[in-house]
Amino acid sequence: MTLNAADLAELRAMVGADNVIAGDAELLVYECDAYTLEKQLPHAVVLPRTTEEIGAVVKWCGRRGLPIIPRGAGTSLSGAVLAVTGGIMIAVTRMNRILEIDARNRRALVEAGCVNARVTQAVKSLGLLYAPDPSSQSACTIGGNVATNSGGPHTLKYGVTTNHVLGFEMVMPDGEIAWFGARPDGGEDVDGYDLRGAIIGSEGMFGIVTRVLLQLIRAPQAYRTMLGIFESVDAASQTVSDIIAAGIVPAAVEMMDQLITQAVEAAYHFGFPLDAAAVLIVELDGLAAGLDRQAENVIQICRRNGAREVRLAQTERERLDLWKCRKRAFGAIGRLSPNFLTQDGVVPRSKLPEIMRFIKAVSERQGLRIPNVFHAGDGNIHPLILYDERDPDQVRRALAAGHEILEKCVELGGSVSGEHGIGVEKIDFMAKQFAAADLAAMRTLRGVFDPEGRCNPHKMFPGSKRCADFAPKKQASA
Amino acid sequence: MIEHIPGDMTVTVTGDVTLAALQGELKRRGQWLPIDPPFGGQSPHPSPLPFRRGEGEESTIVTLTIADLINFNASGPRRFGYGTIRDYLIGIKVALADGTAIHSGGKVVKNVAGYDLLKLFIGSRGSLGTVREGTFKLRPLPEREQFVQARAESLETADRLIEAIMNSEVAPVVLDLHNLENHGMDVVAGFAGTREEVEWQMATVRELGFVEPASLDYEATFWNDPGTVSRLSVLPSRVFGAIHGLGGIPFVTRAGNGVIYYRGKPTTTEHPPRQLRREKTFDGSILAGAFASGYGVPALAGKATASPGELKVLPTAESSHAPPPEGGTPYPDARHCAGSGVQCASESSRTAALMRRLKDAFDPEQILPELPS
After folding, report:
1. How far is CA A142 from CA A137, B17, B158, B326, in A?
2. Which of residues 53-92 of A touch B (CB under 8 A)?
3. Which one, A164, A234, B153, B253, has least CB within 10 Å?
């Protein structure tokens, strides 16, 4: 179906004329997220300002049988917010306020469209922070973080979104409003099933989260951030395992290989060596007491694994610059290639050397460059498969390389996604990682929240409709 | 135990393994699952906590199994520093009501493939399926762990001591308050980590009036008593108002988390002294909550009252704290819906309906036990 003028007038009446987008040119922004291999325009995008407005739009969609696509900032990397068969996209970006900060109880109540980094900025002066820090944190929203159970470099020590979200308000697929988990003025233990836990990471398929109660943590008293420079990826990988095995719990352990280090250096001029096979960023944090001894331990472990050099960030400026380079690494890829496909597999930490060798072999076999920048401490790889979308054969080889790498992750006892999610991109892998009964149980859970499958349809499950499966009426050219 | 790879800091165990046995094995490799429930849980510095199966029975040491740990979402004093089992369970194998085996999660510490189904089984008391296997993230054993305590003659003093800790730079793994000694109340704090970290924190809290020696022995005292235990969960800043409402019956409070375990019937219905009331941070009104009229009346248990200004924190009917093997109600619960009046009640019935639907979807024949409400 298409929307007619009367439909649009109804939508405008619900959320305000300025908050409905229906023109093709304007809709282009919403044709995909950061996974750009599949694109489709929604029928319209609404930008509500209140939970009640969302409830009204959802009910309206229900009456018309239109799919609902929840959207945050659209930084997801797996097509999680793709409007596969069109529908009404509900973007929460205008619901971006921090509603309350409760310093004593270390909590913050925010609207779903609040940008992740804003939370930590807002509570910094109170000596607090919000721990999950995805690399897109200066753009991605808390609502999107809840939908994808986002991680980030510091999840090694602090855990992911589900470990820091106490509760939230959600508009159900029938338009009703419910609160899950702890309430802003309530205790942290809540009776009954952990529906909050089941909703976090459900990729917007159970409803639209509108307000989120975050658990804040005390900001560390001190940091020791080190840059280890290695002659081989193997040596750097082994160092990661050895640090973990030594009983040290770093806040973060990130690896960048030579290709990505060169691109980052060309873009941001930090002073990375251009000839090193791999660099490790190891950050320790916590109380100042004893941190130097732990840092010395880390340096020794790096040296035992043949590190050419280990630099310790001398100032806060230097530390922040280092992190800026790491978090903007994806952005530097433009210097290497017109397009890239990133994968997000996870392996048990001890399998890191093996998966890195495998990626290298895939790169050679497929004739594509694959730089790596990733959360080594968690075993969460991010190979960036470089290709040119103008060359269909390169596109085919890039996809094949991605498949090979993810299959290897599953074979090594890992997972096809550590933080980016399944979306439309990795649907085909679900049946590889999960048995039919596992998938059936997930579908059962979906049915509990969304029996009619209205919310973010055609995602996650094998057999879902793909953009390529039907003739799109409004496919925008890339 | 099925698989422990120290370099991965993960372990996979079958549901019938006891937590104590698991911790014993992990300890030999310098690691532990950072959870210390009262029943048979062992800390890195072991103080086994036996408990009695029930009133009148011979003292029987029963240890918690991994399946119990998940089913009852058991935790202990160290939850302030380490969190609960929800923060460590990364994979699960469950037999559903029809006997189908499913798995959720996996062996890796970060995993967002598919829905996070495993969360549903935590605290579900076997009502959605039978836990066969769990995979957990682990932590290295801390180099050192030490405890301090401070005596408090009054709730106001206890409040001041706990606020002093919360406002200082220390990061305790335990922050408890109990009244199990004859002399009144004790605030107990525990610190874990490197030798330097612990020493620095111990020095800091000594200046706040905390002393050694101290231990977690009160845990055994509390949980070994055969009487029934109830639980309240409140905003951490409001524990003192809630404790005031108990009127002096035995309690252990995880002050950092706002969780209060108590034994017996609360006796006080009068409002706490002004200094124990805290302004609500979120909507500006004075806290309602645990000490309001009607507190602890069993007839009200399970019903969230809707009228604004009335009590909306209600403990459920008393229940035994001993985890019975089949379908009992081992862990006490607090039912609460503090906050925003009528809307809260309708939202609560919505989530209750969802939970019902979930149970019916996973157990259509109603073969498995009900989740006690």
Report:
1. 9, 38, 36, 41
2. none
3. B153
Question: Measured between alpha carbons, how far is residue B26 from residues A89, B3, B36, B129, B136 in Å?
Answer: 49, 11, 14, 27, 12
Q: Is residue A249 located within the same domain as residue A159?
A: no
Mutate to test the interface with A, among B108, B278, B348 (most CBs of A within 10 A): B108
Question: Domain tally for chain A?
Answer: 3
Interface test with A, best of B3, B96, B110 (most A CBs within 10 A): B110
Nearest to residue A448, comparing CAs of A198, A200, A88? A198
Which residues of B317-361 form beta strands (DSSP E)? 334-336
Name which of A478, A239, A256, A292 is nearest A384 in CA terms.
A256
Determine contact: A121 vs chain B, CB below 8 A.
no
Closest by CA to B76, choosing from B202, B186, B211, B222, is: B222
Q: Do A179 and B86 touch (CB under 8 A)?
A: no
Q: Is B301 on the interface with A (CB under 8 A)?
A: no
Give the residue among A224, A225, A226 at the shortest CA–CA distance from A310. Answer: A226
- Closest by CA to A193, choosing from B190, B359, B241, is B359
Indicate the DSSP class of residue A465: -
Q: Which of A249, A415, A441 sits opposite B111 (nearest CB)?
A: A415
Phi, psi of A346 (to 5 degrees): -130, 140
Kindly state whether residue A38 falls inside one of the protein's structural domains.
no
B166 and chain A in contact, CB less than 8 A: yes
Q: Are the C-beta atoms of residues A295 and A312 closer than 8 Å to each other? A: yes
CA B339 to chain centre: 22
CATH number at residue A374: 3.30.70.2740
- Mean pLDDT computed over every residue of chain B: 78
**pTM for this entry:** 0.89
CB contact under 8 A, B120 and A197: yes
The nearest alpha carbon in chain B to A153 belongs to B110
Cα atoms found within 13 Å of the Cα of residue B170, Cβ hemisphere only: 30
Report the DSSP pairing between strands A217-218 and A278-286: unpaired
Distance from CA of B98 to the nearest CA of A (A): 11
The enclosing domain of A202 has a CATH number of 3.30.465.10
- Residue owning tokens 């006997």: B99
Distance to chain B for A418, nearest Cα, Å: 4
- To the nearest whole Å, the CA of A5 is away from the closest chain B CA by 35
pLDDT band at B58 (very low <50, low <70, confident <90, very high): very low
Give yes or no for residue A387 having a pLDDT over 50: yes
Amino acid (1-letter code) at residue B267 = T
Report whether A474 contacts A24 (CB < 8 A): yes
d(CA B150, CA A329): 50
Rounded to an integer, what distance in angstroms lies between the CA atom of residue B40 and that of residue B64?
5
CB spacing of B8 vs A350 below 8 angstroms: yes
Residues A168 and A209 in one domain: yes
| Min Cα–Cα distance to chain B from A391, Å | 30
Q: What is the CA radius of gyration of chain A?
A: 22
Structural domain span for residue A120 = 98-218
Chain A interface includes B286 (CB < 8 A): no
Is the bond preceding B6 in cis, omega lying within 30 degrees of 0? no
* Domain end marker among A421, A448, A473: A421
Of A251, A336, A350, which Cα lies nearest the Cα of A291? A251
CA pair distance A431, A443, nearest whole angstrom: 13
At A224, the pLDDT band (50, 70, 90 cuts) reads very high
Q: What digits encode the pLDDT tens for the residues A15-57?
A: 999 999 999 999 999 999 988 888 999 999 999 999 999 999 9
Do A193 and B123 lie within an 8 Å CB cutoff? yes
Domains and CATH numbers, chain B: 3-140 (3.30.465.10), 144-342 (no CATH)
Q: Contact B102/A441, CB-based, under 8 Å?
A: yes
